[in-house]
Amino acid sequence: MRHDFFDILIREGFESLLLSFAPTPIEMQSISDAYGLVLGEDILSPENLPPANRSCMDGYAVHARDVFGATESNPAYLEQCAQLRVDEAPNFTLKKGDCAAIPTGGTLPDGADAVVMVEHTQELGAGTIEIRKSSTPGEHSMLKGEDAANGEKIYEAGHSVRFQDVGLLAALGIGSVKTHRKPRIGIISTGDELVEIEAPPRVGTIRDVNSHTLRCLVSKAGGIPVNYGIVPDKLQKLESTLAKAIAENDLILLSGGSSVGMRDLTVRAIEAMADSEILAHGVAISPGKPTILGKAGSKPVLGLPGQVTSVQIVMLSIVMPFIRHLMGQRNSFDCRDRPILLAELERNTPSKQGREDYVRVKLKHRKGNIPLAEPIYGKSGLLKTMIQADGLMIIPSDMEGSYAGEQIQVWLI
Amino acid sequence: MRHDFFDILIREGFESLLLSFAPTPIEMQSISDAYGLVLGEDILSPENLPPANRSCMDGYAVHARDVFGATESNPAYLEQCAQLRVDEAPNFTLKKGDCAAIPTGGTLPDGADAVVMVEHTQELGAGTIEIRKSSTPGEHSMLKGEDAANGEKIYEAGHSVRFQDVGLLAALGIGSVKTHRKPRIGIISTGDELVEIEAPPRVGTIRDVNSHTLRCLVSKAGGIPVNYGIVPDKLQKLESTLAKAIAENDLILLSGGSSVGMRDLTVRAIEAMADSEILAHGVAISPGKPTILGKAGSKPVLGLPGQVTSVQIVMLSIVMPFIRHLMGQRNSFDCRDRPILLAELERNTPSKQGREDYVRVKLKHRKGNIPLAEPIYGKSGLLKTMIQADGLMIIPSDMEGSYAGEQIQVWLI
Fold first, then answer.
1. CA distance B56 to chain A (A)
2. CA of A260 to nearest chain B CA: how many angstroms apart?
3. Does the distance separating the beta carbons of B206 and A383 come in below 8 Å?
4. How far apart are alpha carbons B311 and B210 in whole angstroms?
5. Where residue B82 sits, what CATH number does that domain have?
6. Residues of B in contact with A261 (CB under 8 A)
7. How far is Cα B318 from Cα B324, in angstroms, rounded to an integer?
8. Are residue B201 and residue B311 in the same domain, yes or no?
9. Nearest CB to B105 within list A206, A209, A336
10. Global confidence as pTM
């Protein structure tokens, strides 16, 4: 039995279905290549970082209380008891009134709790050092384990590896980590009217735009785009291409079927796959409503709208977070990680209740004030609204619009 | 003669020097690979897009005035004069009172100015079509040239190619464009104390963190990182590695020299290169002040601070925009393109006048209010401040800090 095409889910319901798909398997990855991937394991620090109390400066290791209140005109005088090398583990305890010359990165002797920079000292000869600046405990030094303590859980599985994290892993000597494999995303364009972009223009043909934008956005999310070209509106051909793509990928994106006939074809092709099911026939967002979710075995298949703008909005709002979920990222649909700019809405912007509206906006920067956001209108078959847009304003489904002058959040795209 | 180490430029002055370096050469690039690169040419539209007035829906092409006011209970009746195919260029003018069946993507006949969706019509037989919905000119149709007019300048050189742009180029049949070549960025770590991350920890050694974070951030900006490993503090060895890196790259990043001795070594190595000059000995930002800018021939050489946090801040604020500049991007230092979140500062945050302060902040999200931003303190030799940070708050050099409760802009990193 065919489902009703008006069986539309709210976005949250659609997302719940997507979250039921399992992430890709984990594998070892060198930290150089782990940037942007997602950890598949908790990571415990294998040692203290720094491994010992260390100096941040060239100078003298001191007891801070010995130089408290020292100034240019009222210096303190200490006896130098050692000249430490950077690769030396001092085997003595610094006595009160003593100091030890120490290079940047050198290990502080026991007892020393601060470092005075060499610029604020003067050698007076016979081992006496004049200290011209006061110090406080911990000054110009780093404490053992301050960055990471031995055994401390520094990352949890599901954490997306940032550049800073690559730095911390390197500092701890962790050369490789378990991350989720990059998902392969099969892209199939469907439609008799579609032609490759090199084709000369002919009446009734449209160049295949979507496979190009999908490719960019799949890569941006962290997936590996795999292109299956243009498939005409023939069920048998679509079925065979879809079966191949399902075998070779972690997620399949079909784009093209916006007309009722095409949507029907997409549904029938998915239903013809082994162990398949249609999970949703649409999602209550605009543009982007005619988005079909199915599965074949354990593999998700998304039938995306064919309209060029609709498919871009669905990619940004739903498919890219889903790819991050497949990559193992926790809370990948959490909007809080989106780059948001606060702006003032330039014009009243109506919206239909019952659907989440993704209004394209153009930012007009102003001196000394937040930018103005101009809503851009145009049909979802046109490219120009996304071309002109700096970002998106989301009007929730329970609202009828936003008013000129309101402060709005613009999601930078 | 050696320059004075306290010869520090303000950030804007430092940037002006960077902007004097020429971008990389341009080359042809397929649009699939042009995403994220920068156009090296203006692009004119080679045709009208759409090429003709087109239908966005399956339905009937009509004169909008013929169906004005039509409703379910008060329909309009039109005579169907044609059944258009999607690949057909109609060679007739639609007469008043007539309609033509048209598929999605079909070309409208002359005279037709709107499309009524098939869902709002009924075939009554004998060529009569009942129209149950009013229409307005332009409805469910796209006009010739609405996305791009033949000959229109759609992009200027210096524009960074977004996913939407790849879509528009594809739609216009433009398969390749001239973009600036990805710059190769040589990375040299310096310091006797540095060891590769696989090395077992020993007193006085530090694992080479910076070359790993630099690699990530160079890639993120769009450059190709090229690693030259760790060079000890020997002038001759540094000179030979630097000369090789200059020959092979568009920009060289030296990292490690924070101590006065190391900085001196970096300066001497740059000065030893052919046709070299030291352009700046520092920049008035914190952390990150000890950043050296030199050039050898036409190639820029940056001596970055060795402290792990300082080098990350300098990369984000200065080097990454500079890489974008080398890639040809216009206004690459323009802060307005940064993702910014508005937040409320949680605590008073003092700052020294005379330097731009990059305070790491952690965001605490709240329901129904902008997030709280907690400033994170810690030495720039520690990794933890950047690990904990969600973003940066920039305190300008003419201010002494920001107050708790102030609305601040957090640059998401």
1. 7
2. 9
3. no
4. 7
5. 2.170.190.11
6. 58
7. 10
8. yes
9. A206
10. 0.92
CB of B250 closer than 8 Å to CB of B185? yes
Between CA B107 and CA B144 the distance in angstroms is 10
Helices A260-271 and A235-248 meet at what angle, rounded to 10?
A: 50
The distance of Cα B378 from the centroid of its chain, to the nearest Å, equals: 30
pLDDT for position B1: 38
Prior bond of B50 cis (ω within 30°): yes
A138 and A265, same domain (yes or no): no
**B122/B360 Cα distance (integer angstroms):** 65
For A125, residues 6+ apart whose C-beta sits below 8 A from its C-beta are: none
Q: Pick A216's closest partner by Cβ from B35, B58, B219.
A: B35
**Torsion angle, alpha carbons of A254, A256, A259, A265, to 10:** -40
Q: Is residue B98 included in any domain, yes or no?
A: yes
- A362 in contact with B, Cβ within 8 Å: no
pLDDT along chain A (413 residues), means of 10: 63 97 98 96 96 91 95 96 91 96 92 95 95 93 94 97 97 97 97 87 85 97 97 94 98 80 88 96 93 97 93 97 97 86 93 93 90 92 94 94 94 91
Q: In which residue are the tokens 């820029």 written?
A: B300
CATH code of the domain containing A290: 3.40.980.10
- What pLDDT sits at residue B6? 53
Strands B285-286 and A176-180: unpaired
CA-based nearest residue to B37, from B199, B155, B153, B123: B155
Contact A69, A208 (CB under 8 A): no
C-alpha pair distances (Å), A142 with each of A46, A117, A148, A379, B412: 19, 14, 12, 59, 27
**Interface A:B, Cβ pairs < 8 A:** 218
The pLDDT value recorded for residue B3 is: 46
Q: Considering just the CA atoms, what is the radius of gyration of chain A in Å?
A: 31
A171 to chain B, any CB pair closer than 8 A? The answer is: yes
Note whether A401 and A293 are same-domain residues.
no
From the list B204, B308, B389, which residue is nearest A86 (CB)? B204
To 5 degrees, how large is the angle CA A282–CA A327–CA A8?
10
Same domain, A176 and A31: yes
Same domain, B198 and B244: yes
Asked if A374 and A346 touch (Cβ cutoff 8 Å), the reply is yes
First to last CA, chain B: 40
Interface residue of A216, A218, A336, A340 to substitute, partner B, most B CBs within 10 Å: A216
Contacts of B86 in chain A (CB under 8 A): 192-193, 204
Q: Do B170 and A215 touch (CB under 8 A)?
A: no
Count how many domains chain B has. Answer: 4
B246: left (phi > 0), else alpha (psi -120 to 50), else beta? alpha
Angle subtended by helix axes B235-248 and B260-271, to nearest 10: 50
- Indicate whether A281 and A392 sit together in one domain: no
- Nearest C-alpha neighbor of B255 from the set B332, B333, B324, B314: B314
Any B CB within 8 A of A366 CB: no
Question: Is residue A201 assigned to a domain?
Answer: yes
Give φ, ψ of A287 to 5 degrees: -75, 165
Segments forming the whole domain that contains residue B174: 26-49+146-180
Task: Answer yes or no: are the C-beta atoms of A218 and A224 closer than 8 Å.
Answer: yes
**Residues 190 through 229 of chain B touching chain A, CB cutoff 8 Å:** 192-193, 197-210, 212-213, 215-217, 219-220
Q: Do B197 and A174 count as a contact with CB atoms less than 8 A apart?
A: yes
- Whether B339 sits inside 8 A of A342 (CB atoms) is no
The type of residue at A1 is M
Say whether both A294 and A351 belong to one domain: no
Q: Which residues of chain B have pLDDT under 50?
A: 1-3, 5
